[in-house]
Amino acid sequence: MRRVLSTYLFVDQRMTVALLDRILKSGIDEVEFFCARQHLDYHNQSQIDELRYWFRDSDLKLHSIHSPLFSDDSWGRSGPKSVVSLTEKSKARRIEVTDEIKRAIEIADSIPFRYLVQHIGMNEEDYDEGQVEAAFNSLDEIIVFGKQLGVEVLVENIPNVYSSAQRLRTFVESTHLPLSFCFDTGHAQLNGDPEQEFELMKDRIRSTHVHDNDGEDDAHLFPLLTERGSIDWKPMMDRLRSLPEDVPLVMELREDEEMENALVETRRSLDLLEEL
Asked: What local confidence, expressed as pLDDT, does residue 257 receive?
């Protein structure tokens, strides 16, 4: 399977051409940009231009981007208005949210990519039909905007009331929106039944997020490199290998301060997964 690295691994560092060069030299051929403004400021055209010139002459490819979760550069600590959620029921806030996501999609004008990975809702929300309608309206607009730039929207299974595999499938079937899925291994584990999550999503999976956890905390652990992991990786890899050949393994890992070289450990984790 193709190997892709999410830059979430370096989300607290500024995205630079030096960082991309390190990723390429580590043997990774494709990346997914994680759109957090302290890392990749998609509002800053000079930063985007610097990356564009580098990609133009590089063998590294941009596979996808992860839609922003917050509009500030401090993980939402500037206040509730920084939260970027499709489930905003206020029309004014929903316009702000969709505009923020469009700013990220516009990266494709400079650096082409295929997919936008999008969450529906945030953690710890109560189910609300009004929020489901808000998500439909937001996604309808984002899908049309992305299509103009050659970008397809993928919704991701996450551990909240809107984004279990069953809820995502029901949402797509009831809205008839042209949506496919990003299957997240760690989130499937947190949702309680990774095999069922996969089977419900399988026919629409176009990309993945691969990481481990202890079954309770969304820790984005390196698969097969920690005793804290709870995923049974042999059957998980069998499932992932059953997907079409163009669906990659996208490693979405959290940097471990105890690791001497996170990129070397990423390669080791990938090698172990593929050897199973």
From this structure: 84
Mean pLDDT by runs of 10 across the 276 residues of the chain is: 97 97 97 98 98 97 98 95 96 97 98 98 91 98 98 97 97 98 98 96 98 97 96 98 97 92 97 97
How far apart are alpha carbons 10 and 48 in whole angstroms?
A: 17
- DSSP bridge pairs for 208: 183
End-to-end CA distance of the chain: 13
Q: Which of 101, 197, 119, 116 is nearest to 162 (CA)?
A: 119
Question: Which tokens belong to 137?
Answer: 């309206």
Q: Between the CA of residue 167 and those of 50, 134, 138, 181, 225, what are the distances in Å?
A: 40, 15, 17, 12, 32
- Could you tell me the CATH number of the domain that includes residue 34? 3.20.20.150
pTM as predicted = 0.97
Domain carrying residue 139: 3-275
The total number of structural domains that make up the chain: 1
Q: How many CB atoms lie within 10 A of CB 91?
A: 10
Residue 65 CB neighbours (<10 A): 27
CA–CA dist 153, 136 (Å, integer): 13
Note the pLDDT of residue 45. Answer: 97
Whether the CB-CB separation of 100 and 72 falls below 8 Å is answered with no
